[in-house]
């Protein structure tokens, strides 16, 4: 009996160790392949030359990453900007405000939203959202915010509904469930005794949410935001339909742009020269680095916050 | 007890599976490449399997991938929408021949203009796609369309955002007929577009063109026909304005100079035929020269398709090769000992 359990115990130990090392091995493997495949482009364009070049001309075999990095960062940041308030609002409503018979359907709806494949978001974006954006929302924005000085340049041009703004809205809809469900779980972890004490000394609901619930669960929300950012950085199909895949850096949100993953999906199959293919691998290497750095930075921040909380 | 029986049965099951897989592999032709001919290859493969029991497994991974796969010899044949240059064929040891013809049709959304009413020539089309002509009642368009009430809408150019053979054919046409295009943009599966917005796939371009008044885009012939898009009549090399239909594509194919010596390398643009549609292109099959056995099986399939597949192709709006060209391809096979 004792012998058997030690055997299964060591088997289990070996299994977990192998699994853990496999992950690292995969990571290194992916990095190695990306690096070796993009070596040709690295040698040709260099690091600075590639990152800051706006050229993307397959006919002349000239490639630069600046427009796609721009598109990736802008759509991700805008999506987070739209999604965080809404998602946190949903989570607050579900945990603190809604009566029980509303909680369940809303929670299920959020989780279902998370289960929709991204290609469906893309098609919905192309056929439904983009005409709405082009016909109503974008002209309205142009007539209000577009008339302001400085901010106005964000809303220049002819609204077509195939642009940075529409792509960001689609992305934000996709990441709302992630942030909302993680925030909800974080809110549920707030000890009810703390909340009840606050109510006991006469705090309003708003005060409890602002001063107790949100500070208590900021780590959880932050974690959700980081996960969502990871998804937004890498999202491909949904964005591919509504962003226009034009390698350009623009000031207007009503202009077409391209993200790294969309360029990969659009151009990989028909990339016919070695430099072209290698440049696409180089783009993915850069995305790999961006994700790695942002997630790493987030991890460090969380650790610092945790230490601060313990003090 | 029953579990034990089941377990002891597994090796037998595995052996049967493997041998079945093995015998299956003997009667399967594996191919990969272009997405454009995928529907017609599947239709042919379906009937061919019913008649002969030989399976065709075609993965539509894109022309670039198809060329790479056959260069690496991982498939029996590769397929490409763009002809591969004879020099590269020599270097990588490949054969090449065409299977069906397709083409590209400019489509527009203009208030008051009916299908096929607008007439354009290559210089004007080039001016529009270069962004030089920005309104529809521009002098250069008016000159070609006397008697037509052209609207004053702004021109919105819609182009493909993903790399595609359709773009390659279209930009090759513009490059060969218009100097300004050749200098500023050039030809390729994806190019650096001077004007307009990008849409993903034929369906994306069609969707934008249908929605945006004053827009012009280009889609594959089959797509334009099946979706009844408002097409443009183009002036061909012989100076006639032609409709995109089976006859004009067949004439383009018949008048094109497909040269067996150069492995049929040809961009079928601006063909000289009297009624020829000027923006067409064949889709091609690539074979590895040293693999005589698998080549014979692939060639048998395509020869069968040449003989029996025209109806199916036409139903799917592909233009079959003219009989004379088919015979030239058969000579090419015979000369290389794979027929």
What does this structure look like?
The complex is a heterodimer of chains A (about 300) and B (about 350). Helices cover about 75% and strands about 0% of the residues of chain A. Chain A is mostly helical and about 300 residues long. Chain A has a domain of about 210 residues: Orthogonal Bundle (MetI-like fold), CATH 1.10.3720. In chain A, strands 1-2 form a two-stranded antiparallel ribbon. In chain B, the strands form 2 sheets. In chain B, strands 1, 2, 3, 4, 6, 7, 8, 11 and 12 form a 9-stranded mixed beta sheet that branches. In chain B, strands 5-9-10 form a 3-stranded mixed beta sheet. In chain B, β9 and β10 form a beta hairpin. Chain B starts with a helix and ends with a helix. The relative contact order of chain B is 0.17. The chains are: A mainly alpha (about 300), B alpha/beta (about 350). At the A-B interface, β1, α6 and α12 of A face α3, β7 and α9 of B.
Can you tag this structure with a few keywords?
heterodimer, A: 311 residues, MetI-like fold, 1% strand, B: 339 residues, alpha/beta, D-Maltodextrin-Binding Protein, domain 2, 9-stranded mixed sheet, 3-stranded mixed sheet, 45% helix
């Amino acid at each position: 009996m004792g012998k058997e359990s030690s055997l299964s115990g060591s088997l289990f130990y070996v299994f977990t160790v192998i699994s853990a090392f496999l992950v690292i091995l995969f990571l290194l493997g992916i990095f190695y392949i990306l690096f070796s495949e993009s070596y040709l482009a690295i040698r040709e364009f260099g690091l600075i030359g590639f990152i800051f070049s706006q050229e993307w001309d397959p006919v002349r075999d000239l490639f630069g990453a600046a427009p796609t990095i721009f598109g990736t960062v802008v759509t991700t940041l805008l999506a987070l900007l739209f999604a965080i308030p809404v998602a946190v609002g949903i989570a607050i409503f579900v945990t603190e405000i809604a009566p029980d018979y509303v909680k369940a359907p809303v929670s299920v709806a959020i989780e279902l939203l998370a289960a929709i494949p991204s290609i469906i978001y893309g098609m919905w974006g192309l056929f439904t959202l983009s005409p709405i954006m082009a016909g109503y929302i974008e002209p309205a924005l142009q007539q209000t915010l577009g008339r302001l000085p400085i901010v106005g340049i964000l809303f220049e041009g002819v609204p077509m509904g195939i642009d940075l703004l529409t792509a960001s809205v689609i992305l934000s809809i996709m990441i709302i469930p992630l942030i909302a469900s993680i925030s909800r779980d974080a809110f549920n972890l707030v000890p009810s005794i703390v909340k009840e004490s606050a109510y006991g000394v006469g705090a309003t609901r708003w005060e409890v949410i602002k001063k107790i619930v949100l500070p208590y669960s900021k780590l959880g929300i932050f974690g959700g935001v980081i996960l969502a950012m990871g998804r937004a950085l890498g999202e491909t199909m949904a964005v591919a339909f509504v962003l226009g895949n034009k390698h350009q850096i623009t000031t207007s949100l009503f202009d077409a742009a391209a993200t790294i993953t969309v360029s990969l999906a659009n151009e990989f199959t028909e990339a016919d020269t070695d430099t072209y293919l290698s440049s696409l691998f180089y783009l993915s290497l850069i995305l790999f680095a961006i994700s790695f750095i942002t997630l790493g930075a987030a991890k460090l921040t969380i650790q610092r916050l945790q230490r601060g909380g313990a003090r | 007890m029953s579990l034990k029986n089941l377990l002891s049965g597994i090796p037998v099951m595995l052996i049967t599976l493997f041998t079945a897989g093995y015998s299956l592999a003997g009667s399967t032709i594996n191919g990969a490449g272009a997405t454009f001919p995928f529907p017609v290859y599947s239709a042919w493969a379906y009937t061919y399997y019913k008649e002969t029991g030989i399976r065709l497994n075609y993965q539509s991974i894109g022309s670039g991938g198809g060329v790479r796969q056959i260069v690496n010899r991982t498939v029996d044949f590769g397929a490409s929408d763009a002809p591969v240059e004879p020099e590269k064929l020599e270097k990588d040891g490949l054969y090449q021949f065409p299977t069906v013809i397709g083409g590209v049709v400019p489509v527009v959304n203009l208030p008051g203009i009916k299908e096929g009413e607008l007439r354009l020539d290559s210089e004007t089309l080039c001016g529009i796609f270069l962004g030089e002509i920005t309104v529809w009642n521009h002098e250069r368009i008016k000159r070609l369309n006397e008697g037509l009430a052209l609207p004053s809408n702004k021109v919105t150019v819609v182009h493909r955002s993903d790399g595609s053979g359709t773009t390659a054919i279209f930009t090759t046409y513009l490059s060969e007929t218009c100097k300004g295009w050749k200098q500023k943009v050039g030809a390729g599966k994806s190019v650096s577009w001077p004007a307009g917005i990008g849409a993903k796939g034929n369906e994306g371009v069609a969707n934008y063109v249908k929605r945006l008044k004053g827009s012009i885009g280009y889609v594959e012939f089959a797509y334009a026909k099946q979706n009844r898009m408002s097409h443009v009549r183009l002036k061909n090399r012989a100076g006639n304005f032609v409709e995109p239909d089976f006859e004009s594509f067949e004439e383009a194919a018949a008048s094109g100079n497909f040269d067996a010596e150069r492995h049929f390398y040809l961009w079928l643009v601006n063909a000289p035929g009297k009624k020829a549609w000027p923006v067409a292109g064949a889709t091609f099959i690539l074979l590895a020269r040293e693999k005589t056995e698998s080549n014979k099986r692939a060639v048998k399939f395509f020869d069968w398709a040449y003989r029996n597949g025209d109806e199916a192709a036409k139903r799917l709006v592909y233009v079959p090769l003219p009989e004379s060209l088919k015979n030239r391809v058969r000579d090419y096979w015979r000369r290389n000992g794979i027929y």
